[in-house]
Amino acid sequence: MAENAPSVLIALQCAELDNGVSQVLLNLLPRLQRLGISLHVVFPENGSLERALNAKGIKTLVEHAPVFPGRNALGIHRYASYQHDRAVRIADYIHSHGIGLVNTHTFIHWDSAYAARLAGVPHLWSLHNLFGLGAECCLFRLLPWTNKQRMALLDLMGDAYISVSKEVAETLISSECQRPNQVIVNRLDLAGFENRALGIEDSLNLREHLGLAGDAIIVGNVGRIDPVKDQMTFVEVAAMICEKYTKVHFVLVGPVNNQTLYESLCQRVEVLGLIDRVHFVGSVENTAPLYEQFDLFLLTSWCEGLSLAVMEAMAAGCAVIATDGGGVKELLEDQVSGLIAQPKAVSQIAGLVESLLASEELRIRLGKAAQLWIRQHGGWEVAAQEYYKIYQSMALLQGSQCKLGNIQPHSKLSELQGQLTLIARCAALEAKNREVEQELKAQQRQSKQLEEKFLYQLYKLGQRFLSLPHRNSAQRNRSK
């Protein structure tokens, strides 16, 4: 199959292994390499995924990316400028290594897409999350754009899309995506998962680690601390359950991606009096052995593509309750292989948790059905073959005859540059407006304080004037 195999640059947003996208690529990329594809992977930093791919003989490049500065106007200009410079360096790499296609995973960074346009090679977006719900380029979040406007820009920056679930694809269609969009469902490496689950050296015994009794019931969640994962709902459900069940403990496993949210979660746990019932374990390198220690797995996300954590829980035979936040219904059949709730529906989710706590038989039945389903669906070899076919089509049939899109890098480049410049300027202007608003509010507060001080001084002066006749009268009386 190596005949006519393209050379592909994979662009990633993260170099660590503590997230679903990285785990997906750790399984997918070596299989693509075995099919004969020459892979190059560009990272924004050094990390465990970069080292793992290097160990498998995959070429890696580290081009450091700036941290998004938030609403700071000057910072946004610098951020956009740095992204442009990074894109130029990546484009030079594309030229010097004869790369015929760029594949960016997620929307978080746009510089590799820009680099593909500069180099005149096709660009493919791989989407791992629902479009339009915050899982896109940070600059987008500052703009009052509609999803259709955002989609138009992404169409300009890419020639085709791969969606990890039908629901992800549908969000693109509803946003009037004009490029071809193919669904390649994420898989689970069952053999690898089962081997990791048997790992002794790197496994974590939750009951020992947390000091829990042997008969403690564990409701688990695996995922980064991030708003889209909605761990706050997890905590609120814990409050309702722990009030009735004294042996139940809620365990959150995953890295802290959002420090502000983590602090809010800790404060809420303390306010609810759940410090000894809700546990934050942090990042765990090998999560596979944990699922068998959970009595049930609870996913509370409101924005997913296709949850790897749910698939791993299913493979372990762990009963799953999941919110319908993207791709869940493509994995679970409600009441058959799992229980599905609406996102943020605390009372509904708590009710489902109670139903599983009350029936070990139901937990076992759902767990076995989920395990059977996940084992019957294809492994990563199927996904690798699908990716290979798309890579061949895009890299070998460039220009207007490309089966997956009409690639016009040079004619669209100036328009693309204008769009990106507009993003940076609009974001900076909005940030400046916020600064002006804050300054105005500060001046209004200061004015109010001065006004209150002036009125008080006026009152004191009036009191003094009012006392003057009394003083003059008293002086005249003394003189007599």
Report helical residue fraction.
40-55%
What is the residue-mean pLDDT, rounded to a whole number? Answer: 85
CATH class of the largest domain: Alpha Beta
The CATH fourth-level homologous superfamily of the largest domain: Glycogen Phosphorylase B
Secondary-structure element series: EHEHEHEHEHEHEHHEHEHEEHEEHHHH
Counting helices, strands and paired strands, the structural category is alpha/beta
Number of strands: 13
**Cα radius of gyration in angstroms:** 29 Å
The main pleated sheet reads as: 7 strands, parallel
What is the number of domains? 2
Q: Please name the CATH architecture of the largest domain.
A: 3-Layer(aba) Sandwich
Walk me through what this model shows:
The chain is built from 15 helices and 13 strands. It is of the alpha/beta class and 480 residues long. The protein folds into two domains: 7-187 and 380-431, 3-Layer(aba) Sandwich (Rossmann fold), CATH 3.40.50.2000; 195-376, Rossmann fold (3-Layer(aba) Sandwich), CATH 3.40.50. The strands form two sheets. A seven-stranded parallel sheet has the order 3-2-1-4-5-6-7, with helices on both faces. Strands 10-9-8-11-12-13 form a six-stranded parallel sheet, with helices on both faces. Strand 5 (123-127), helix 5 (147-157) and strand 6 form a beta-alpha-beta unit.
